[in-house]
């Protein structure tokens, strides 16, 4: 039996909706795991690499994602697969706060109370995050590596698209804590105090001095924080120097 024109229209609408949903999932995977190849995205989502590349082409057309050559260390035989990261417009499609309003409020706060007021607000804001995730980290024990993995899980639940990447064999040197999404990225571009307060909070939560290597607010594709694991001084020891 042939479909009526109305049935065909409805079916096409369903297909378009599914395609848009899949592209959102592709974008979310790139945000959390990028730089990442089309083949690896396909594994994460249970799709074919061909299907993923079709969605990547569409995302690239509207400047939501961009590709780049892989790092030298990842190259093997044959032509290396390109890796994908979220572009600026792609971050705008991810869940975000009201950037313009928030920036105006921060400017007003700075005008009325100065830089100290901005930092006090940043500290107060991140204190809420610390309180929400501390129990999860404490349950992981005192090892910085285990606490970092617990923090990654907690940040993921908070919407930061977090992941952990080992530095050195079996994380013998440390761990890179990566955040593929930041809900205040645009505001932090003008007010880096938000990033600084978050970095200090990570040091307190993990018990070691961490180093922020890159941020989305600075134009990088991901926020990266280095967490040392072997023989690192505790945060308290460093603070008492």
Automatic annotation (TrEMBL):
Residues 1-14 have a biased composition (Polar residues). InterPro entries: Carb_Metab_HTH_regulators (IPR050313), WH-like_DNA-bd_sf (IPR036388), WH_DNA-bd_sf (IPR036390). Residues 1-20 are annotated as: Disordered. This is Putative ArsR family transcriptional regulator. It comes from Janibacter cremeus.
């Amino acid at each position: 039996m042939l479909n009526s024109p109305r049935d065909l229209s409805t079916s096409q609408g369903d297909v378009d909706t599914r395609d848009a949903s899949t592209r959102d999932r592709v974008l979310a995977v790139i945000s959390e795991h990028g730089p990442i190849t089309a083949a690896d995205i396909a594994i994460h989502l249970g799709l074919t690499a061909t299907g993923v590349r079709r969605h990547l082409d569409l995302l690239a057309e509207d400047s939501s994602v961009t590709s780049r050559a892989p790092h030298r260390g990842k190259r093997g035989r044959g032509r290396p697969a390109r890796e994908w990261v979220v572009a600026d417009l792609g971050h705008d499609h991810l869940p975000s706060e009201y950037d313009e309003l928030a920036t105006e409020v921060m400017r007003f706060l700075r005008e009325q109370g100065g830089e100290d007021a901005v930092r006090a607000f940043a500290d107060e804001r991140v204190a809420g995050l610390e309180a929400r995730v501390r129990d999860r980290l404490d349950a992981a024990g005192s090892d910085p590596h285990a606490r970092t993995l617990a923090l990654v899980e907690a940040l993921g639940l908070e919407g930061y698209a977090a992941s952990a990447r080992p530095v050195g064999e079996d994380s013998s040197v440390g761990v890179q804590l990566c955040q593929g999404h930041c809900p205040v990225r645009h505001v932090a571009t003008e007010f880096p105090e938000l990033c600084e307060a978050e970095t200090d909070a990570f040091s307190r939560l993990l018990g070691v001095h961490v180093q922020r290597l890159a941020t989305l607010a600075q134009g990088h594709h991901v926020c990266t924080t280095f967490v040392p694991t072997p023989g690192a001084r505790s945060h308290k020891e460093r603070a008492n120097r």
